Amino acid sequence: MLDTAHARSETSPGDVTRARPVDPSRANREMAPRLSFSDDDMIDPIPVPEGEVTLVEGVCGTEPMRHRLVVEQARAGQATMHVLGGDRLDTTGLARRAQADNLDPGYVLRSSIVARAFTAYQLSVLVEERLPQALARVDRLSVALVVDPLRLYTDEDVRRAEAKRLASRAFDEIATTAETNKLPVVLVQPPRAERPELLAQARELATKHVLVQAQGEGSVQSGQRRPELVVTLPGEDQRHRVQDPRRRQARLNRFTSGGTA
Q1: Nearest one of 65, 21, 64 to 47, comparing CA atoms
Q2: What is the pLDDT along the chain (261 residues), one digit of tens a residue?
Q3: Phi/psi at 61 (nearest 5 deg)?
Q4: In angstroms, what CA-CA distances link 28 with 22, 66, 104, 153, 228?
Q5: CB of 46 within 8 A of CB of 65?
């Protein structure tokens, strides 16, 4: 069963499907927002430089950024592929984001192509085979999101050497797919203390590095490459602060053009 939250798609693990629309009015009654500030203008979409791999590290804040990115792509008539490594697509949150941006939630959900893996081996197959197949079939596929791949590669049932081999192959394939197809690929990775060498591999692979942190957190550890973009989530006293959109856009422009934001 492909678990995509409210998508309710029955298929084999690793199969590719489209997210099914949910009733957004019902969703709003049943589920409170995960972040009380996720619907205002303080959470930007993830920048997606063409043909590059962007690593987004963080816990809170990455999901609203993903939602805004998917909605922006749908508004432009483009599709997004979600390769999920143990995570689920929050179709309720995505539908709510579409509503907030005055876009039909059903249309946005239909623009989402979802593939979820349950093992490290399935994830490798998705990256090495299913993603290229989707690119060949879907003319309007404009970005791929690979969410929490390390969750499966750090599974204790997978031997350390085997996990490193699988992750290395998958990351190489991601980089090749991005460059060959001029496809923006975004790796969204929550912090994981297990097997730090795998996170180091992801950081080495990425052309761009975005760090999402809560206010007051230290952004860069000793010896770590400095992220090109640091997104600091507002604290309680700043949730309703109005930021200058021109200043934020300038930071994103510097990021996508190769500078440091």
Answers
A1: 65
A2: 333 333 333 334 555 555 544 443 433 333 322 232 333 444 566 778 888 998 888 766 688 888 989 999 999 999 999 999 877 888 999 999 999 999 999 999 999 999 999 999 999 999 988 888 888 888 789 899 999 888 898 888 889 999 999 999 999 999 999 999 999 999 888 877 778 888 888 888 888 888 877 665 554 454 456 666 666 665 544 433 434 445 555 555 555 555 555
A3: 100, -25
A4: 11, 19, 15, 34, 35
A5: yes
Residue 24, CA distances (Å) to 81, 97, 230 in order? 21, 10, 32
Going by CATH, does the domain composed of 5-256 fall within 3.40.50.12280? no
Domains of the chain, by residue range, sit at 5-256
What DSSP character marks residue 4? -
- Please tell me the distance from the alpha carbon of residue 257 to that of residue 261, in angstroms, as a whole number: 10
Count the residues in the chain. 261
